[in-house]
Amino acid sequence: MHSRGPDDAAYIAATFRRGLRDGGFIDGQNVKIEYRWAHGQFGQLPALAQELARMPVAVLVAGGGVPTAMAAKAATSTIPIVFAMSGDPVKLGLAASFNRPGANATGMNTLTTALDPKRLGLLHDLVPGAARIGFLVNANFPPSALQISDAEEAARAIGVRIQVLRASSESEIEAAFETVAKERIRALAVASSPFFDTRRKQIVALAARHAVPAMYHFREYAAAGGLISYGIDIVDVHHQVGLYTSQILKGAKPADLPIMLPTKFDLVINLKTAKALALAIPSGVLAIADEVIE
């Protein structure tokens, strides 16, 4: 079960299947995968999770963030759950601890939301003259209040202020960028959100249209023409989720499998986009980039 759609997340599903295969399970041979997709609509997740739980499935894999994991947890207290999400699973009640989850859920804490302040600092390094930075956030995303408070704290630490722009639909994303243009906001940080991930082409196109330097959380955005991204290697995350799922299929209990943390973070810069914005990337930022798209 995933918060995205099958086309948008095709490579994620393929990576998950590779993890399963590396663990000894091949879809259509010794295991069958039942896919459910929310297409960025969080409200559909509880019904999708309940449908899978009623089948029932041997393992419920919840990808695409906190809403998916919470929907899975609400649907079953007995079926093993493997999640990939940015929120703290202990604070959210999904696990007793990282080392010993203790219940029926384990997986990967991707730290995506926790990296929003780091991304804000990198954006400030790119556009040091911006005394005000826009912060695009999905108000319907459960961690959004924490994202905003963390971003405000990070902004104070670097001597800038943020202007929060809330968007939970395609039309609201359009309106947010109109505000960016109208109020001459010189830089924009896009908060992590599975909904934004499903609308990344729209967001990247609007940033180009309004000529605003924007920071993103996944490489997907930079590959689609976004200026810069900093975050986890999403391919590696879902490979690990596939491996964990295979362990559970072999008899391991989620209660005993430690919650994983990512070990690889990538800073990706799109120089073609920087050139279109007439933006000179500081040498210090280029020096720490993991990938430069030209």
Description:
The two termini are 35 Å apart. This protein folds into 2 domains: 10-111 and 233-263, Rossmann fold (3-Layer(aba) Sandwich), CATH 3.40.50; 113-231 and 266-293, 3-Layer(aba) Sandwich (Rossmann fold). It has a 7-stranded mixed β-sheet with strand order 5-4-6-7-8-9-10, sandwiched between helices. The protein is built from 12 helices and 10 strands. The longest helix has 16 residues, at 234-249. By secondary structure, it is α/β, with parallel strands linked by helices. Helices cover 40% and strands 16% of the residues. The mean pLDDT is 94. The chain has helices at 10-22, 45-54, 66-75, 116-126, 144-157, 170-182, 194-198, 200-209, 219-223, 234-249, 271-276, 283-287; strands spanning 60-63, 81-85, 105-109, 132-137, 161-166, 188-190, 214-216, 228-232, 265-270, 291-293. 46% of the residues are buried.
